[in-house]
Amino acid sequence: MSAVQTDNPFDLDSDAAYQRWREEKLRRHPERIDDLIVEIRDLRKLSKAEHSAVVDRIRRCNMAIYTSRHDSKGNENEDKALVRALGRQFGLERLDHNMGADEDAITSLTVQDDALHRGYIPYTNRAIAWHTDGYYNSPERQIHALLLHCASPAREGGENRLLDHEMVYLQLRDRNPAWITALMHPEAMTIPANIVEGKTLRPAVAGPVFSVTPDGRLHMRYTDRNRSIQWRNDPLTFEAVAALKATLRSGSPWHFAATLQAGQGLISNNVLHTRSGFTDGDVPRLLYRARYYNGIAVHSG
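-> structure tokens emitted (301 positions)
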């Protein structure tokens, strides 16, 4: 970090800015899942009040859960059009064409066992540990916003736990600012190359856990997996990672849990999240996922 103080609260040399931000963050952060929910009449065209309500929650905790009366009736094109239209109203245009996504870059999250999706946990009914999306992406393709839209829920399970990454940063920095330094190292966390049958599908990717975007926002890339991950061989890094994992596993007023129902969704600045295992009914669980290279615009509109 620079020795020159700035007004950015995520600059470790700017304690005054951090303390001001910290006080406001704790004062305004929701402590009930109900405080995240915004009812929306038409996802294609939010009213000014609906848009402002979503923006308010993004400002306070980097996420909002919306609920609507939209009934997909199994219409994939209509559902995906809703996702794209909703994202655009918050400045989200730059979709990530990840390997498992459909041709339009929106991913159908449902149980799939074809050759492309086989072996990847998001396309099974198994639990997924704490992570931010796209943690294996290269630095220029980092995911800064995530939109999940539920077309049909599981018969049982499929719960998401949610945690604002800024609250994790706050707790770790309060305990030991040196942990933040370690987690901001450009080689803090490496995801090894994805090699299948001798073919490299994705090269190894190294990068920080916490970083600050050019516009001053805090970004986090993280996975709680224990295999296929390499941490920087440094005692302070190991200590910081242990503290981070403990923070995720401990309960707090800022840990939320939600099981999205049809017509509901999550819009966020790629906050930390999990998924519990689930059991499908006659209609399989299906969520549409859109990942974006830019964060959510929080100007009024």
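DSSP finds six helices and 19 strands in the chain.
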